[in-house]
Write a structure and sequence with these properties.
The structure holds 2 protein chains of 2 kinds. Chain A contains 1 helix and 16 strands. By secondary structure, chain A is mainly beta. Chain A has 2 domains: 41 residues, no CATH class; 84 residues, no CATH class. In chain A, strands 6, 7, 9, 10, 12, 14 and 16 form a 7-stranded parallel β-sheet that branches. A 5-stranded parallel β-sheet of chain A has the order 5-8-11-13-15, with no helix packed on it. In chain A, β1 and β2 form a beta hairpin. The radius of gyration of chain A is 16 Å and the shape is globular. The N and C termini of chain A lie far apart (40 Å). By secondary structure, chain B is mainly beta. Chain B has one domain. Helix content of chain B is 4%, strand content 46%. Chain B has an 8-stranded parallel barrel. The interface between A and B is large, with 46 and 39 residues.
């Protein structure tokens, strides 16, 4: 019994709320939770986008990969973002943004770290390396 | 050392303060302060501790210091970890090391403005106005369709 308690205590990770930016402990396998600070729903999953996808808001505490055939038209909030396809919109990332050689980006970008491979197309306003203002 | 001299035959020393317009052919290494305009096809290096204020047009630019102004490089712009750039960047290739600070508009890639194949929508059109359901019967709303990692 005690071992299961220990196990459940260990199986947590910390995520940052995409709405209020407060740190929250969540279960490792949780797919979504409600932020205890702002009571808004947080998606914790990683996503791979390989088709056209346009929404008002696309936010997750996980990583997002836009595949070659993917085309996202949305404001994105994520932990890390990899662009192999096309992305149009305002992007706020807490980790790294990587634009691969087949990647195409147009919009605004805010992240601590940016990697653009040769051949990628990038057109937009960037804010790199400064403490996030809207993350 | 010899390589560096070959690459950058001209060096503006750490105690130099230059104001005006600078033109060169091969390469310039900036160690001090520069205030003005640079127009060249060669390489420019803004070393750590150096400050450049003004617009730059060059073949390639490597920044380790501080730059306030617009950079236009035909080939490549490199920002190392200690770099701080406030201004617009237009180039074919951009490398930003972790720790570098970049604030400004960037246009990188083939002519910088190439549109993806089949791109018909205007970028200025707000995302919420673009219908999520297409004529080909794609799912309207939710979940970033594709499979999870």
């Amino acid at each position: 019994m005690s071992s299961s308690v220990t196990q459940s205590k260990a199986a947590v990770r910390q995520v940052i709320c995409t709405h209020c930016h407060c740190a929250t402990d969540v279960a490792l396998r949780a797919m979504s939770v409600f932020c205890p600070h702002c009571n808004k729903r947080l998606i914790l999953e990683d996503y791979k986008i390989d088709s056209y996808y346009a929404v008002r808001e696309f936010s997750t505490c996980g990583d997002v990969v836009v595949e070659k055939k993917g085309h996202v038209v949305a404001p994105i909030k994520a932990s890390n973002l990899t662009i192999k396809g096309k992305v149009q919109g305002s992007v706020v990332v807490r980790g790294q943004v990587e634009i691969k050689k087949t990647g195409w980006f147009k919009g605004e970008l805010e992240a601590p770290c940016l990697v653009i491979e040769g051949g990628a197309v990038f057109d937009g306003f960037v804010r790199i390396g400064l403490p996030a203002v809207s993350a | 050392m010899a390589d560096s001299t070959n690459e950058f035959p001209t060096t503006l020393g750490a105690d130099a303060v230059f104001k005006g317009q600078l033109q060169f052919e091969k390469g310039v290494k900036l160690l001090g302060k520069f205030d003005g305009e640079i127009n060249s096809d060669g390489q420019l290096m803004v070393a750590e501790g150096a400050t450049l204020t003004g617009d730059v047009k060059a073949g390639s630019v490597r920044v380790e210091g501080q730059v306030k102004g617009n950079l236009n490089a035909a080939a490549k712009v490199q920002l190392s970890a200690s770099a701080r750039l406030e201004g617009d960047v237009q180039t074919q290739r951009l490398e930003v090391a972790e720790g570098a600070v970049l604030v400004g508009r960037c246009v990188v890639g083939v002519n910088g403005h190439s549109k993806p194949a089949g791109e018909v929508r205007s970028a200025s059109r707000p995302a919420e106005l673009i219908p999520t359901a297409t004529a080909k019967g794609r799912m309207p709303e939710p979940a970033p369709t594709a499979g999870k990692k």
